[in-house]
């Protein structure tokens, strides 16, 4: 199967970072190992065009395509129009790189708003409205941003999420207000040989993610403090925010 994963960030693209990019990179590796022809499209303003073909052999890799926003679509101002220009650029580049059997994109910032509906899977990664609701430092999204994100979800052939909690919150906010069903796909650790716990030493609770309010690390700290064991160590792995 020929698959395209769309994102605005990627660990291998300088100047971009974030959980969605990490998700795309890990998903691409897993899909390649499963025998699929996988391409990653990273589109964001100011990026230089790069094409890295995929490779086969014992350690296959996915192809990586980095693209800027199309010159004729760069609006002068307005967050909504800027995001629409990025989404339209994603559609253009997807058509140039295609055809694809499946195209996957995040809901975040509406990257999948204009992708072919019949072949597009939208992954709920936390819409901008939820981010603003959970983190008071974030400004509420514009109508254009919300429209783009919801359009991608409403048109998609399939919508998936790793979190039932997120889906319930979106329904409570009336953000998910149509007939579109959401498939809950729990994450599966891809570990052929899980690491053994240390023979001697404390049990470890590991939290992974950017250190910011909406990730809920404060709840994790409180939960670990309530554990009855005295030999529990909490480790947090993730960069802090710029603020």
Apparent shape? globular
CATH class identity of the largest domain = Alpha Beta
CATH topology of the largest domain: Rossmann fold
| Arithmetic mean pLDDT | 88
Write the CATH architecture name of the largest domain: 3-Layer(aba) Sandwich
Number of helices, where a helix is a run of at least 4 consecutive DSSP H or I residues: 6
The count of domains is: 2
What is the string of SSEs from the N terminus onward?
EHEEEHEEHHEHEEHE
Structural class: alpha/beta
Proportion of residues in extended strands: 15-25%
Keywords, separated by commas or semicolons:
10 strands; Rossmann fold; 2 domains; 243 residues; 8-stranded mixed beta sheet; alpha/beta; 6 helices
Write the layout of secondary structure elements.
Layout: E1 2-7, H1 19-33, E2 37-43, E3 50-52, E4 63-67, H2 79-97, E5 102-106, E6 120-123, H3 128-134, H4 143-155, E7 158-161, H5 164-172, E8 182-184, E9 203-208, H6 217-225, E10 232-237
Parallel strand pairs: 1-2, 1-5, 2-4, 5-6, 6-7, 7-8, 9-10
Antiparallel strand pairs: 3-4
Helix pairs in contact: 2-4
């Amino acid at each position: 199967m020929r698959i395209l994963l769309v994102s605005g960030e990627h660990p291998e693209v300088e100047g971009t970072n974030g959980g969605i990019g990490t998700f795309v990179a890990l998903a691409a590796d897993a899909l390649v190992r499963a025998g699929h022809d996988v391409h990653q499209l990273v589109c964001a303003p100011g990026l230089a065009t790069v094409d890295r073909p995929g490779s086969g052999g014992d350690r296959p890799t996915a192809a990586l395509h980095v693209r800027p926003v199309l010159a004729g679509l760069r609006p002068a101002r307005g967050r909504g129009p800027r995001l629409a220009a990025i989404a339209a650029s994603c559609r253009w580049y997807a058509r140039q790189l295609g055809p694809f059997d499946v195209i996957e994109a995040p809901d975040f910032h509406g990257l999948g708003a204009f992708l072919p509906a019949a072949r597009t899977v939208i992954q709920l990664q936390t819409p901008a409205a939820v981010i603003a609701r959970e983190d008071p430092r974030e400004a509420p999204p514009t109508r254009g941003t919300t429209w783009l994100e919801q359009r991608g979800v409403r048109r998609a052939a399939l919508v998936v999420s790793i979190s039932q909690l997120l889906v319930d919150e979106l329904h409570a906010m009336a953000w998910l207000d149509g007939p579109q069903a959401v498939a809950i796909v729990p994450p599966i650790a891809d570990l052929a040989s899980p690491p053994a716990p240390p023979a001697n030493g404390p049990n470890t609770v590991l939290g992974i993610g950017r250190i910011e309010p909406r990730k809920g690390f404060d709840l994790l700290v409180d939960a670990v403090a309530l554990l009855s064991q005295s030999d529990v160590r909490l480790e947090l792995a993730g960069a802090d925010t710029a603020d």
